[in-house]
Amino acid sequence: MASDGKLKLLGLWTSPFVIRVRLMLNLNGLSYEYVEEDVKNKSELLLGSNPVHKKVLVLLHDGKPICESQVIVQYIDEVFGAAGHLILPADPYDRATARFWAAYVDDKVGPAWRTMLFAQSIEENVDGATQAIAALETLEGAFQDCSKGKDYFGGDKAGIVDIVLGGYLAWFNVFEKMIGVRVMDAERTPLLAAWADRFRALDAARGILLEDVDKVLDFLKAFFS
Fold it and tell me: Which residue, 160, 32, 176, is CA-closest to 103?
């Protein structure tokens, strides 16, 4: 990775929003200091860096804080992307389309993720899974249009939609074991299922997509106890 020495990420390893920022940093070959936060006992650095929401995640660049994952991802793109890995198309219409679908992922997959994570009943789990499946079925069509027959939403390489959805992708196997429902299924969404295999194989994704499902479940058990 390129040596920068000016980037520090305050995060939580299981967070899909932290995962997407780490993906973006890795795609651009940037070195950074990662600081794992105890979200039940937040550091003064975190609270001072994000005084509005007082939560992970925060990227510090030269000591200046940037908050909110999609804002951070686009900041990295603007500052480092030209020499690394640009994630937004050059064409204004294509760029607007990519931003629309990235927002759709957080608007639809995000609430489904929260529902499944914090569910208090089987019914809530099923409701969350149903929401996620419906969103992914819509994204199947978006992938076909955005990819233009190539490997990623961004075409030949991962773009902003790939990165935003990739953060949630890390959780799909976790939810399958938690609630017994396969959210991303090759029969329902074959294009996305193939995309997921390619995305998981990226060097930038290695070690951060929650491959050890049991470790995540142990974390959740301790977190909610």
Answer: 160
- The residues near 128 (Cβ < 8 Å, ≥ 6 apart) are 112, 113, 114, 115, 116, 119
DSSP E strand boundaries for the chain: 7-11, 33-36, 58-61, 64-67
Find the farthest-apart pair of alpha carbons in the chain and give their distance in angstroms, rounded.
49
Write down which residue in 83, 104, 126 finishes a domain: 83
d(CA 9, CA 119): 29
Decide which of 60, 83, 106 is a domain's last residue.
Answer: 83
Edge-to-edge, what's the strand order for the sheet holding 64-67?
33-36, 7-11, 58-61, 64-67
Q: Given this model, what pLDDT does residue 225 score?
A: 87
Residues 85-94: tens digit of each pLDDT: 999 999 999 9
**pLDDT given at position 4:** 52
Give the closest residue to 160 by CA, choosing from 97, 204, 91, 107.
97
pLDDT > 70: percent of the chain: 98
